[in-house]
Structure formats: C-alpha cells, structure tokens
User: What shape does this take?
Amino acid sequence: MSDLDTLQPEQRDAAHAALREVIGRATVDAVTPISGGATSARLFRIDAGGKNYLLRIEGVPSPLRNPYQYASLRIAAEAGIAPRLYYVDEASRVAVMDFIQWQPLGHYPGGLPALAKALGGLLARLQATPTFPAFVRYPDIVARLWAHVCRTGLFAPGVLDRCNEHLERIRAAYVWDEANSVSSHNDSLPANILFDGNRLWMIDWESAYRTDPLVDLAVVGDSFARTPELEEILHRAWLGCPPDEALRARLRLVRTLTRLYYAGVLFSASATAPRAAPDTSLAAPTLTELAAAARAGRLRIDTPAAKHVLGKMFLASFLTDVATPGFDLSA
Assistant: This one.
C-alpha cells in the first residue's frame, strides 16, 4: 500500500491527479512521508523518472488562512526563491514542486556571518519581486491571534492584562504604510529556510502576502542575527547600508509584534492539551535554564508543555525585549 493511501479519499484523488499531470506515465519509485513541522499540511517526497518532487496537500484551513498563498508561491518560485513549482490546484489545495535535498543551516560556509549576509540578500530579492496580494495588516493578524489566546482560558483572569495593554501601546505607536508594503514570507523561521549545500531556498508559503518589509527582517534577525555584529551584517545585506534611527525605531515596534505573534502560535498549540487549571503565572526560564531543562530531559521539545514554556519566553521578549529562545540550526 502506498503512503498516499492513508489520505482521505478526496485528498488521495487530488494527489494522484497532480502526479499524473507532473510525471505522466513515469513509474513512481518511492513515496516517502516528510515531517511538516508546525504545518498541518501532509508532505510527501515522490521519486519518479529520476527526479525528486515534493507533494504538498494542505490540512484543515486555519481561521487565519491566507487565501493568496498560491499566488505568492508562484511569484516566489518564478523568482527562484521558492523551489520550482510544477503544479497547483487551488481548489483541492495541492501543489507539486522540486524536493530540496537540504543540509543543516549550521553547515553554511562561513558560519553565521556569511549566513546572515546571504539571508539579508535573500530578503532583498524577495521584496523586489512583483508584489504579493494583500491579505491583512500585520498588527491586525497579530491582534486576532492574541484575542484567540485570551479566549482559550489557558491563563487565569487578569494574568494577560499587562500583555493586552502593551499590545495596545504598540499598535498606537505603529503607523501602517500601505504604499511601502512588499512581498513577504511572514514566517521566515529556520525551519522554512533550506540550504542545499550551495544556496538558500524559502519554503512553506501559506503565510505569504504583502506587508511591512520589516516583518521578515525582524523574524530573521531574532532567529539568525542574535548579536549586534550579526544584526549589522543582516541589515547591510538587506538594505545596502546601515538603517537610520527612524528605521531602527520602526523595526523595534515590528519585532515586538512578531514576538507576540509567535507567542500566540505557541500558546494556541499548548491550549489544545488538557490542563488541570488555568495558568496563573507568566514566569519564563532564561535561555540557560531552558537549555539545562532540555539536556536533563525535564522539557521535551515538540510537546504541548514545551510549547507553553516557549510561548512564555516569547511573551517575555514581547514585554521586555529580552532575547527570544532562538531556534536550532542543526536540524
């Protein structure tokens, strides 16, 4: 039995239709399920006709679903930023593209300085593409996600009041600039950036639409440029020169919003697990304490408990500008 047979009938039929369109009568040599990380999509590596493809089938739509992801994906693929795209059926939400044989980002030649420079250039290329469709203003989608967290009952009444007040201050200080919105990935975490041994690719475009150019810069900076020196390299590669103080001030506001967004994503995941009582504390471990807990096995990554702790750490970053937990570049 093929792994595609584990799909629901409609998804299975759509997957076979996609493969017939792409590979024709070539023999399918192997179908291998691929871990999709945080995405709800089902992913399969398809080996056929001497080539390797990625078959992507979207899962249950999120209430925050971006209806323009395939338009954005096409633009990014045509620009050589996303892998080559062979097939898209927007109705069945199925796509077939090149499968990227990736290496850990930690293996990037020249280490973090070279990686930060390459990422700055990659963001500049993305933002120079034909502009993606507009979906929602970034502060609005952050606020929607955070409102959902507040409704889950994950935290006791009053615990999140300080966060709500801080979000209102940030939104009051931030001025939306529609005229200068650009094509953005909006989820440019290490898991969505692949290194093939030669160059970088961006994958998983379900959150991609037109928005503030600093959103991707903030996310990439928190992930890869965690020292002033690396941040300077990233910014120079993206802009072509150091940002002025006005741009730095706006970046601080946008970075605050991106941190709350990821806190919301993590808390939304942890809220699906049973909990004896609402949480009454926002206390978060330091980076050193987090590493120690993971090494000792007290905190298992990819569990609801770990997502809850990481959510608190992102929330601490949102409130106080301490460093985010960061992400492992070895995977």
In short: The chain has ten helices and nine strands. The first helix runs from residue 9 to 23. The beta strands are 28-34, 42-48, 51-57, 85-89, 94-98, 182-184, 193-195, 200-202, 209-211. The mean pLDDT is 94.
